[in-house]
Design a protein that fits this description.
alpha+beta; Rossmann fold; Dna Ligase, domain 1; 9-stranded antiparallel sheet; 10 helices; binds adenosine-5'-triphosphate; binds magnesium ion
Amino acid sequence: MSRRVWVLGAGQLGAMLQTAGRPLNLDVRPVAIDASEAPALDARDIVTAEREQWPESVATHALAQHPRFINSTVFGRLADRKTQKTLIDELGLATAPWAHVDESTQAADLHHKFGERVLLKRRTGGYDGKGQHWLHQSRQDEIPDNWHEQAIAEQAIAFDEEVSLVGARNAAGQCVFFPLTLNLHVNGILLGSVAPLPRLAHLQAQAEKMLETLLQHLNYVGVMAMECFRVGDRLMINELAPRVHNSGHWTQAGASTNQFELHLRAITDLPLGQPTIKGLSVMVNLVGTERNNQWLAVPGTELVWYGKEVLPGRKVGHINITHTDNAAIRWSLEALRPHLPSNYNEVIDWLVQSIR
Ligand code: ATP
Ligand code: MG
């Protein structure tokens, strides 16, 4: 009989976990957060999540109460930016200076602490740049009313670029990591990734040490992602995601074990192994973009289409390309360019530039 793994949430991450489970004969079952019936859970089953937060429903209640809901205590702690940042500070890890926005906090207090530009982030529920609000001292912006007690404030970081580290820990405390990924965010949403880049290799040990500190402290089992700002040779944690992550999608094409399989191996206590990296990988996120089958005619492309309704700003798929020859990737990206909306010129240019 195959091992059963339930996933709290039935979006694209759950679907990709399911795909990754098949070759291992793991019966991975994503459950929609609004399902009105409780899944048929068995005591031997394992429960994981594709999201760090969920509304209370019959289904989410049943899954979250299961004795084998892996990392059950971690989700709440990381889903709230206040407790997440507190944890990062307690462990002495670098992160953007921040403050809680309480009832009496004034914009002037925040500018006094952090300078001209301050980023308010809602404590919970934000994603893809939603739930963020910039305050400019020169514009005399005010803190919106319903953001008191509901947000943290961060200093604006003049970073050189954004990188992320995806890694996993098993129950015995072993950790494995993928190489650092370079990410392009536009208006708070991830549009492109590249990995591995030789010029970032000297930061790998620093990044692994930071994420390993967190994983060990939390006794975490499975994949976690750490988004960082690179400021010179120093990494600062932007945020943590206790799950598989969009910036790890390139591993589907570029690693012998992808992040989804690595997560499943960790939570079902299979050997983690050390993923072999197959070459250089790029990922293009498809956001609010109608499907175009011409993408499939471009050599080397691997399309993952999520089958969701296409809405502005919504992640509806991604394209991975892996090759040992950077010129071949560049060629494929140029071949892809005319088949993407014109706002993707920026993404293609960035990818081409990044792999030079
Ligand atoms: P995700 O979809 O990754 O969960 P999110 O909407 O929850 O994203 P963040 O990752 O915190 O929010 O921020 C989104 C983006 O906004 C970052 O990738 C970065 O480009 C920018 N950003 C966030 N914090 C800062 C900061 N302190 N200074 C400058 N830019 C920032
Ligand atoms: Mg983020």
